Amino acid sequence: MRNRVRGESVTKRSMRGFDREALTAARERKQWSPARLAREAQIGLSTIRSWEAGTRAPEPDNLAKVAGVLGVSMDALISPRPGGPTLADRRILVGLTQPQLGLRTGLSTTSIGALERAEIRLTEERARRIAEALQLTVAEVNDAYRAARQRADDVP
Question: Radius of gyration over alpha carbons of the chain, in Å?
Answer without folding.
Answer: 16
